[in-house]
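Narrative of accomplishments. A recurring question from our advisory board has been how the design workflow behaves on a single, concrete structure rather than in aggregate. To address it, we present the structure tokens for one chain from the evaluation set, followed by the sequence designed for it. No filtering or post-editing was applied between the two.
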């Protein structure tokens, strides 16, 4: 494994988490644009990787463009992509979705039904449009033996005012009410979230780095994929978390503004 420091010397590709790393809510992390510009100047490729399944790729593009971040469809890798791939390997075409309109569009564009009366799986995402009808309908299906699959395990979504309930919190709710735990959880920390792109680029894993704010998804995935890891303290994780973390990042910085200097 190559030695990693803030200069990112010998790194050819950077995978960037979004929530808590590039922005918080609708506010850019200070220095984010300048950091991306420095990556461009160094010829380092970068991609945006997010477990947040509340938005479609087009919605992410709109948000990034509104923040003056140049991004293309192929630059964005979401847990929803990993979920769709998993459903297709199981030949699943009928689901009941607890998710947003954006997530629904991504699944239905792949011919996966999201409101089936007889679903093969209940699919759980980060639903920022949650309502009691969705919770109760999903619970009925789970009580009837339908399995649960989730887009990602994150307990909270970072925001400027503190953590907000994410998919992991909804998992806990369904377990409390139905006793059902997910049959499978997609997204980070699964290594496939990143390795297919590393392979496509023709790079070695040690030439790539994952930068994120969560130890149990971003840093865990980096370990699983054998890529380098940088923890930023601009989102969920704190320095105190490092003392009890099972996985230690290669580097810890306050924010991406400290990198490629």
């Amino acid at each position: 494994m190559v030695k990693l420091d803030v200069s990112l010397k010998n790194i050819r590709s950077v995978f960037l988490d979004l929530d808590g790393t590039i922005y918080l809510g609708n506010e850019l992390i200070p220095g984010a644009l300048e950091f991306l510009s420095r990556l461009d100047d160094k010829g380092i490729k970068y991609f945006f990787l997010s477990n947040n399944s509340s938005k479609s790729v087009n919605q992410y593009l709109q948000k990034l463009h509104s923040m003056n971040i140049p991004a293309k469809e192929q630059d964005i890798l979401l847990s929803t992509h990993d979920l769709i791939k998993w459903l297709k390997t199981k030949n699943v075409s009928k689901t009941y979705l607890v998710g947003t309109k954006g997530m629904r569009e991504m699944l239905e564009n792949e011919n996966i039904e999201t409101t089936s009366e007889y679903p093969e799986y209940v699919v759980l995402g980060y639903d920022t449009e949650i309502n009691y009808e969705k919770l109760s309908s999903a619970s009925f299906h789970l009580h009837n033996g339908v399995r649960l699959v989730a887009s990602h395990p994150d307990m909270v979504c970072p925001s400027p005012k503190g953590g907000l309930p994410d998919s992991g919190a909804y998992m806990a709710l369904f377990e409390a009410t139905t006793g059902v735990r997910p049959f499978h959880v997609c997204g980070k920390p699964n290594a496939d979230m990143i390795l297919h792109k590393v392979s496509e680029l023709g790079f070695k894993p040690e030439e790539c780095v994952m930068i994120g704010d969560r130890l149990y998804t971003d840093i865990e995935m980096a370990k699983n994929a054998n890529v380098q890891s940088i923890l930023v303290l601009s989102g969920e994780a704190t320095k105190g978390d490092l003392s009890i973390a099972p996985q230690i990042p290669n580097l810890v910085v306050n924010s991406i503004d400290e990198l490629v200097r």
